[in-house]
Amino acid sequence: NEIKIFSPATVANVSCGFDVLGFCLDNVGDEMVIKKTTEKGVKITKIVGANLPFETQNNVAGVAALAILDAANADFGVEIEIYKNIKPGSGIGSSSASASGTVFAINELLGKPFNKQQLTLFGMKGEAVASGTEHADNVAPGIFGGFTLVKETTPLKVVQLPTPSELYATIIHPQIEIKTSEARAILPKDIPLSKAVKQWANVGSLVSALHTSDYDLIADSLNDLIVEPYRSQLIPHFDEVKAAMMNSGALGGGISGSGPSIFSLSKGKETADKVADAIREVYSKTDIEFDIHVSKIN
Ligand code: HSE
């Protein structure tokens, strides 16, 4: 009648895959406790670590919970406690962690009637409260784990991709807030065909590289010609961080979601740790506070 879960952080876009690719971190995330109540409805009873709304309709977890309980025609309600370790606006899927964690947990309490595609749909309802759009590129990897590709949102089709066993992510979160809506507003509405061709070639080759654990091809595919040139301007010291990542052996990297977090992928934990040291050095010289995470993708 009560479930305690870890709800992972996620990296959306993965450079070339704007709005379609994402991956799930292993050791960075929120905790949530969800209790069954005889009374129907959803109450958010505790939020630790972030200043978020308690009203069910305005809370990502609240809306996601209502969506799944409604669809199941549940004869019970829930109380939700949220312990946020992922800061809102960090670019590593803070809102979607609340959404995906909630629907995963409630599905367990219901006796698992829903599959992962369905859970992603309920989670997207919650995600929309925070970001304004029902995008799935953070919710899907949170629910499925590993790498996912959102082939379509209506109707939803998530494709699960394999994760090469030695792949690690290093992520820096500079503690400034970038609103996803603003980071979307600065993007061009039209893009030249020549750039689009290069971008979808990279998406295709990255997907192939994940299937074949071809680390060189992963490195060659992690480029974003369309979004990064605009959004990187919102992130202090982006170019220095990226250079430090590449110089210390990362396969590649870029903006995590809509930023400000910056991610890189490396082959092996040793390299991922070296990348962490190199980017720590860059940001230690600034007066911006930051966190750095090294995580397996899972
Ligand atoms: N794909 C979305 C974007 C993710 O980049 O705007 C936002 O979390």
From TrEMBL:
GO terms of molecular function: ATP binding; homoserine kinase activity
Gene3D superfamilies membership: 3.30.230.10, GHMP kinase, C-terminal domain (3.30.70.890)
InterPro entries in the record: GHMP_kinase_C_dom, GHMP_kinase_C_sf, GHMP_kinase_N_dom, Homoserine_kinase, Ribosomal_Su5_D2-typ_SF, Ribsml_uS5_D2-typ_fold_subgr
Keyword field contains ATP-binding: yes
Record keywords: Amino-acid biosynthesis, ATP-binding, Cytoplasm, Kinase, Nucleotide-binding, Threonine biosynthesis, Transferase
Family matches, as SUPFAM superfamilies: GHMP Kinase, C-terminal domain (SSF55060), Ribosomal protein S5 domain 2-like (SSF54211)
GO cellular component, one term: cytoplasm
Domain GHMP kinase N-terminal: 64-146
EC number: 2.7.1.39
Keyword Amino-acid biosynthesis: yes
Biological pathway: Amino-acid biosynthesis; L-threonine biosynthesis; L-threonine from L-aspartate: step 4/5
Enzyme class, first EC level, given as a word: transferase
Ranges of residues in domain GHMP kinase C-terminal: 207-284
Catalyzed chemical reaction(s): L-homoserine + ATP = O-phospho-L-homoserine + ADP + H(+)
Gene Ontology process terms (BP): threonine biosynthetic process
Protein localization: Cytoplasm
Domain of life where this protein originates: Bacteria
Function: Catalyzes the ATP-dependent phosphorylation of L-homoserine to L-homoserine phosphate.
Family: Belongs to the GHMP kinase family. Homoserine kinase subfamily.
HAMAP family listed in its UniProt record: Homoser_kinase
Protein name: Homoserine kinase
Taxonomic classification: Bacteria, Pseudomonadati, Bacteroidota, Flavobacteriia, Flavobacteriales
